[in-house]
Amino acid sequence: MKVWFKYLIGIVLGLVAGLILPMQNAAFAGFISFITDLFIRIGRYIVVPLVFCTTVVSINKLRSSKLFFKTVRWTAYVILSSTLILTVVGLLSILIVKLPRIPITVDTSSEVFKLDISSLFLSLFPLSAFDSLREGSFLLVPFVFALLIGFESATAVDTPLYKPVFQLFDSLSKLFYNIAVFFTETMAVFMIAIMTKWFVEYRQIMFSGIYTPMFIMFLVDFVLVVGIIYPVILRYVCHDPYPYRVLYASLAPALLAFFGGDANLALPLTIRHGKESLGIRRRCAGFTFPLFSIFARGGSALVSIISFILIWRSYSSLNIPVAEIFWIFGLSFSISFLLGGFPTGSAFILVTILCQQYARGFETSFLLLKPAALIICSFSSLFDIMSAMFGSYVVAVKTKTIEHHNAQNFI
User: Fold this and answer.
1) What pTM value is reported for the model?
2) 344: closest CA among 302, 378, 308, 391?
């Protein structure tokens, strides 16, 4: 049975459970919430060891085969391009289609979110290098440590001296990958609880109809990006006659990313499908997938632009000045690269930052969309996981680190 079908069965069972179980009971609802949080923690359990060891091997092999800088260039180019495309799509869609206003609420908030950029950079180099392996959210911290080990072990003059180190990390990488395979298979069962909690918490918001036009816009943009823009790019950049194979290989990661809403949770499943379905070699996958998970947050930029302009139009009937449109675009695009430390909720964090930076009475206007925050972030995660799959495929093709598989052999 295909992995994506197992996840789909788990989602359907979770939906049924959300409809028939007594979720009005506070104790039972609390139990479901506890089980869901436990399953998500289990799913993220193997992420740091897998990323750390695989990155060491990946950097070592890329450096030894003289593909490191080419892979870096293509990865940076694709991350920037995908983020720019999603940001432009989000801006154009909300400017072309005027969504219905959201009723103004009187809720207030004394909380002010601040993105501490200096602390973000300092966290890349903890007081002890081994402390980086304790970081479970900001994956760039263990990634940097792994990069140093992999790069030095490949360039050292006395190569035989470091060969046992490479063999150790190579063995650990394969071991943790096998553990990740077990966890990703088990996660299909966990999806029952994850879907139950997701559906119960937000069915009233979905059924109220207030945010439905916004969700429809997200969905239309997703179809446009994944169904047209990305396949066209693959067709002409990679000369791939079957670009929709990448979409097919992305079904299971997309389902987990949307309903799980956690970039780190979906990363092992993404790496697995990149290897076993698309045929992306470990030397490329171990480098590109973590970087896409950390930096390619174009989905957050897309949904935040739509959300902020919808908030603006809900408060005012005037047209947004062109200069402020460019300000919204630039801030959303640039800050999206700094959200790697937030595997969950990054899109709503960006909406909050936009409201606070814009000021002029909009400091707490993000509360209009707070009831729909989970679904907003779900769409953001969905866009980001598709960018990671398509983007890593492009890098693998351009660096010739891929062995193409037939779609019938996809897991």
Assistant:
1) 0.90
2) 378
